[in-house]
Amino acid sequence: TKTEAIASAAVAPDLPAFDYSPPTYMGPTAEEILEKRKEYLSPSLFHLYKNPVNIVEGKRQYLFDDKGRRYVDAFGGIATVCCGHCHPDVVEAIVNQTKRLQHSTVLYLNNAIADFAEALASKLPANLKVVFFTNSGTEANELAIMIARLYTGCHDIISIRNAYHGNAAGTMGATAQSIWKFNVVQSGVHHALNPDPYRGVFGSDGEMYARDVQEIINFGTSGNVAAFLSEAIQGVGGIIELAPGYLPAVYSSIKKAGGLCIADEVQSGFARTGSHFWGFETHGVVPDIVTMAKGIGNGIPLGAVVTTPEIAEVLTRRSYFNTFGGNPVCTAAGLAVLKVIEKEKLQENASVVGSYLKDRLTGLKDKYELIGDVRGRGLMLGVELVTDRELKTPAKAETLHVMDQMKEFGVLVGKGGYYGNVFRITPPLCFSKEDADFLVDAMDLSLSRL
Ligand code: PLP
């Protein structure tokens, strides 16, 4: 069987057919690079290099290490590589633009920037059409928070516990997972109960969690707020789908309190949920500001804030610019990404392959008591491991072990959630059913070996 083939494969398991082998790698070894990493790069997250993999190439949904070994990339550079690694159309757009003009500035006109802004606006509800480019999701959320404060004249921001919004002062304040928080001044930020259907106090009752937001407005603010900021599906937080009914009720409370609703689409945007292009659409709400990054450039540093002309007006009160934000090479990549998503029907693929994968993972849940929950939408899926289904005791060590074992079998998944016991599956949107089968077989075998 395929599972046996995976188990017996010492170096190259029986991966789905893919006609490519990388040229022989002649560079330094993983150990040599690790030494440099240790000496010259930030010590943060160094513990991740327990069994270091030296990735030297990427093609579509596959990564290759220095020994020419292929991995199914089911993490997608943290939900970033949406069209697949080194997609030829994206590469071509980058190369062509690089040859023509690598950098301009906001002082001059350039069509690569304007064309992409127009294309991006066409993917959003009609009035959301003014785009500010940034270099990252953090910058996009910082700017969105600033715009909301300027527009409303209020300071209070409400975000959700277990959220991740970035790592600068304002966004780290809005982030609500202790592992990602340093000693930031969290002025004016309130964290609402997490509407988490699996672990949350009110289960799947979205309206009950929404009452908590209303109470924060009533008792924790002057009655007015600047903004409510949330992901549609929490990514770093462990693929948490907000309880149904939550966002519509919260948006209504926030609007009544004079605030703006900010949708953080850094992970859930760009067709990842399969059913919709944007995550907020899955909740039937329309935000006032949308922030995005990751998938927007297929891995090229790019982010954006999109809002209405009326709200955008606040930035004319002072001079606002960002040296690299909207660099023409990045926006050329962004335009190519939008075209590839459409041309290759990647949203439809995320929907079809995502449901197939979710069904197969749910099948594994019936087989292993250790799997407490399988959730998510499209190609943004989570599998939570618990040692006791009743108590939902996080199976942290087992999660690490299975993840390492899957890596041995040639499958890369991410890990997250407050307890670090959730597999995050966010592959490139060109992921196939064969890749999904391979992933599930590798997970099955890894679980069976615990
Ligand atoms: N918002 C969400 C939902 C994210 O997942 C992330 C990063 O993981 C960010 C914002 C921050 O983006 P960046 O790492 O590009 O600054």
Would you spell out the secondary-structure blueprint of this structure?
Blueprint: H1 2-8, H2 30-40, E1 55-59, E2 62-65, E3 70-73, H3 76-79, H4 88-100, H5 111-121, E4 130-134, H6 137-152, E5 157-160, H7 169-174, E6 189-192, H8 206-220, E7 227-231, E8 233-234, E9 240-241, H9 246-256, E10 260-264, E11 289-292, E12 303-307, H10 309-312, H11 328-343, H12 346-367, E13 371-377, E14 380-388, E15 393-394, H13 396-409, E16 411-412, E17 414-416, E18 422-425, H14 433-448
Bound molecules: pyridoxal-5'-phosphate (PLP).
Pyridoxal-5'-phosphate binds next to α6.
Strand tally is 18
Give helix % range: 25-40%
Share of residues in strands: 15-25%
Rg from alpha-carbon coordinates: 22 Å
Number of helices, counting only DSSP H or I runs of 4 residues or more? 14
Largest sheet data? 7 strands, mixed
User: Could you report the average pLDDT, rounded to the nearest whole number?
Assistant: 95
- Output the structural class: alpha/beta
Question: Termini distance?
Answer: 20 Å
* Unreliable spans: none
Which strand order do you get reading across the main beta sheet? 4-12-11-10-7-5-6
Bound molecules: pyridoxal-5'-phosphate
Query: Could you state the oligomeric state of the chains shown?
Result: single chain
What form results from the Cα inertia axes?
A: globular
